[in-house]
Design brief:
With 299 residues, the chain is α/β, with parallel strands linked by helices. It has a single domain, classed as Phenylalanine Hydroxylase (Orthogonal Bundle), CATH 1.10.800.10. 45% of the residues lie in helices and 10% in strands. It has a five-stranded mixed sheet. The chain has a two-stranded parallel sheet with strand order 1-2. The structure holds 7,8-dihydrobiopterin (HBI) and fe (iii) ion.
């Protein structure tokens, strides 16, 4: 499972009565206050992913990881990380307590600041958490932020997010982020590879997304994705595949308005649907989610 990114999270700071100290919701990372146990959780997660990612994560992810001060032994220090990222792509990592309100989130992204959860999950919740923590945000997102294409794309998402919210079409845009930045796959010379942070920070979904026969894998198409509901509490039923990361650059530049206009009038697709004109790379058996639904009925 993966951290969900929906501001309606049960413990969502963004929705509760929590009053941020600063208007932009940032906090000090307080790096020296992490305990040995917290660093150990990071190490467990890091090493698990390090074994799984060769042959599954895309080349750009591996390159970003190698270029950044992200190591197994300790939770990264955001200032050190930002110094290097800033030189590569102009991005910084800033600490936040958890999910932040949409407009705060977008304002950071539009200015190339990535808000990262300051906390780390507990040893008994290695595979599931409700809000993005430092492992998801830093291990999952930072390496891709070292890539100029993703750097550009996420900034554009921040700018587009503010606008989409005003137009009342934020959920459509959020699906694009979800199926790319969080759960995207890319075709590379030796096969499908992961670039989505939600996958690359999850041991179980890393395998599921690439190897399992259950999910659909479909060529990315903007309007199709804008219409597609997604799951926040379990593996995806469908992964969308870009032919190359550079394809996202065009997406960062085009005007979404004509798409919004069409999509608001169209029906949504269910997460597992395959629809006419889909470029199907692999048609999933749907077995994983069917079994879950079955178990749900029996219970
Ligand atoms: N806050 N810290 C944090 N991280 C997110 O990924 C995030 C958020 N607030 C809102 C949000 N994501 C999404 O709901 C938007 O992308 C729509
Ligand atoms: Fe994320």
């Amino acid at each position: 499972m993966q951290p969900q990114h929906n501001a309606s999270a049960k413990h969502g700071l963004a929705t509760g009565s929590y009053q941020p100290e600063r208007p932009d919701w940032t906090i000090d990372q307080g790096w020296s206050h992490y305990t040995a146990e917290e660093h150990a959780v990071w190490k467990t997660l890091f090493e698990r992913q390090r074994r799984l990612l060769p042959g599954r994560a895309c080349d750009e992810f591996v390159r970003g990881m190698n270029e950044l001060p992200i190591t197994p032994d300790r939770i990264p220090n955001f200032e050190q990380l930002s110094d290097i990222l800033m030189k590569r792509t102009g991005w910084q990592i800033v600490a936040v307590p958890g999910l932040v309100p949409d407009d705060v989130f977008f304002e950071h992204l539009a200015n190339r600041r990535f808000p990262a959860g300051q906390f780390i999950r507990k040893p008994d919740e290695l595979d599931y958490l409700e809000e993005p923590d430092v492992f998801h945000d830093v291990f999952g997102h930072a390496p891709m932020l070292a890539n100029p294409v993703i750097a550009e794309f996420i900034e554009a998402y921040g700018k587009g997010g503010l606008r989409a919210k005003g137009l009342g079409v934020l959920e459509k845009l959020a699906r694009v982020y979800w199926y790319t930045v969080e759960f995207g796959l890319v075709r590379q010379s030796e096969g499908l590879r992961i670039y989505g942070a939600g996958i690359v920070s999850s041991a179980t979904e890393t395998r599921f997304s690439i190897e399992d026969a259950s999910p659909n894998r479909i060529g990315f198409e903007l309007e199709r994705v804008m219409r597609t509901l997604y799951r926040i509490d379990d593996f995806q039923e469908t992964y969308f595949v870009v032919d190359k990361l550079d394809d996202l650059l065009a997406l960062a530049q085009i005007d979404f308005d004509p798409y919004y206009q069409r999509v608001v009038k169209a029906d949504d697709y269910q997460p597992g649907d395959i629809v006419p004109n889909d470029r199907v790379i692999s048609r999933g058996t749907g077995r994983y989610h069917a079994q879950k639904r079955e178990a749900g009925r029996a219970a």
